[in-house]
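Page 47, continued from p. 46.
Same chain as before, 680 aa.
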Amino acid sequence: MGWTNLKRYLDSLDAAGELLRIRRAVDVELEAGCIADRQVKSGGPAILFEKPRLPDGTISEFPLAMNLFGTPERVRRVLGCERVSDVGERLVGLMKPDVGAIAGKPWKGIPLARQALRMAPKRVKKGACQQVVVANPDLTRLPIPRTWPLDGGQTMTLPLVVTRDPSTGEHNMGCYRAQVYGPTECGLHWQMHKHGADHAHASAQAGEAHIPIAICLGGPPELLFSAVSPLPDNLSEYMFASFLSDSRLPLVKARTQDLWVPAEADVVIEGYAVPGERRTEGPFGDHFGIYSLPGEYPVMHVTAITHRSDPVIPMTIVGLPPMEDGFIGEAIGAAFLPVLRFQHRDVVDLHVPLETGFHNLAIIASKQRYPRQARKTCLGLLGAGQMMFTKVAVAVDADHPVHSMGDLLDVLHARVDPAGDLVVLEGMVADTLESAAPWENVHDKLLIDATTLAAADPRLGGSELPRGTSARETPEWRRGKGTPPGVFLEFIGKVRGIDGVTDTTLLRPSMLVVTTSIDDRPSARTGMEAVREPAAWALQVEASRAQRERVFQLMESIWQLDVERHLRFLFITDDDIRLHGSGTNKRLLWQLFVRFDVGRDLHFDPSGTRVAWDATAPIPHPGRAALEAAGQPTSEFDPDLPIRSWPAITLHDQETIARTETSSANDGYDHQPWSPNVTR
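Result:
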C-alpha cells in the first residue's frame, strides 16, 4: 500500500534516521536552498525546516521540507520496492495481457481486472486538503524559496499543476515551476511541449475566458513521481499514482474551479489563467546547472488557498548536478525501461546520466542483428516522450554496461570512426531550457554509433554481403581487427607546449581534452546577455570571433602535430575545470555536454576522420546571416548559427555559504567542504 499522505512518509524517514530537523529560523531566501544543496551533494538526509523565515522577516506557520528524494534509497522508499524496474514490469503486465490464456480460462483475467479497478481514482465529498480555507489567499505567506542569487523571485519547485481538457474533461497533473509575482499571482512555466500547454491551447481555441488551474503542494509522495513520469497518453497521472500505491487515489472537487484535486494534498492553490496573458518568468537556476533564460509565460490568478490542518510544504533545489531531481530522473529511467523495451523491442538498456542534465546524453544499448539496427533504435527513441529532447545519443551493443562512463570511453575509442559513425540530425526538437541551442526549442542532434559491425554491414565485407555488393572502405580496427590507433604520452607533452593550452588530459589513446582561457568569456556568476541592437554588435561580435579563432587555432595546431591522424576526438573547453582534481569526471561530463551545440560546435578535419568538440562557454553572436542582413562585414570566424545569451552557472554567494557553514554544527550535520569542481 502507498503512503497515503506526506506526513506518513516524513515519519518513516524520521524513524529511519533519514530526517534532519532544523529548529532555528532559516531564511527561505538563499539559505534553505544552500543547506539543501550541501546535503544532496553529500548524500545527506531529508530536511525539515521547522521555522522557515519569509522575506519580510516573519516566520511562516508552515514547515518547509527539502531533499525528500535526494538518494536512490529514498526514491525506492517512495516507490515501496527494492528494484525500481519492478514498477515498469508491472505496467507492462497491464499493457500486454495474455489474451489467449484469458480467452480459454477467463478466471485468469480476474487479477488483471482487479488491478485495473484499483487504478481508477475515487471521488470523495471531503478531503484533508480542504480542512482549512484561507480567508485572504496570499502566496507570499507560504515558505517558497528563492534558491539562487540570480533567480527572478521565489519559485515553487515541486508544484503539482492540475489542468483539464475542455472537450473530454480529462485531467493532467504536471510539475511546472511557478514563480510568485505577488499575493494572488504566479507564473506557469509549462513549456509548449507539455500537456498543460495543450490544455491551455485547447481552452483558448474553445473560447473559454478562463483556464481553470490548481497547484497542489505535498500529498502522497507517489504523486510527484507520477507528475514527472513520461506516461502513455491513455494513462493519467491520477491513475498512475493509484497504480504506484496499489489503492485508488481519492479526489475532491476544488472549491472555486471546475477541477478534481488530490484529497490528501497538503496545500491546494486554486485559480485560473487568461488566454493570451503572458508575463516574464525567470531567470531561474535549472537542471542543466545554469540559469534558464527569461521567457514569457502564462499567469495564474489565485482564487482560493486551502490546506490540511498540519501541512508541510515540500520544495526542491535544481542546479549544478548532482541534484535531487537527478535521483528522481534516474529512477524514472529505470522504472520505465521495461515499458520502453515493450514499445521498442530492440532496446536492451538505457542510461541518461544525471551529470549531463539528462537531456544532453543518452546511452542506448540495442540489439544489432542487422546493419544499422542500433541507429534505427536510437531514432525511434528520439521521438519517444521526453527522449525527444536528447542532444547526443550513443548506440552501444546489447551487452554494454550503459551506467559505466569508463566503459563508454572504451567503446568510443575502440569502435567509433568519425568518418562513418557520427550522424548529425539537423533542425530537431530541443528542450526549451537548452540555452546552447541556436534557437529556442530547436537544435541539431548527434547520433554516435559505437556498436560492433553486424555481419552484413558493407563496412565489414565478407561472405555475408549480398551477391554483387562490394564492401565499403573502412579502417581495419573498426572491423574489429587489430588495436585502435592512438597517441602516446610524448604527444601530450607537445600539446602542452602549444600557445593557449592551459591543461590537457588523455581520456583514451584517441581522445584528448584541452582546456584554454578565453578572453572576455561569459562570467560564471553573471553570464553574458546578447546585444540586441545591430548598431551595438561590434564589441561582442569581435569577442565571439576571437573565441572561435582561438578554438580553431588550437584545433589546427593539435591536428598538425597528429601527422598519422590517430587522435580522433579533440575536446576543447574552458579552464574553469580542474582536469586533475576531485570531481573531475563528473564536472567534465557536465561541461562537455551543457556548453556544446551540435550544429555550431562540432568541427571535422578536411579528411572527415577527426572531430573537434568545442565546449567553451559561448560568447553571444547574432550569426553570419544576421550580420549580412544588417549590411555589416563578416569574418571566417563568424558562426553560421546564432549564439544566444549565455546564462550564469548556479553558484551560491559566499556570504550564504559562510552562514550555513557557521550554523552547521548547531543544525545537526557535519560540514562537508565543496568540491572545487562543484563550485568555484
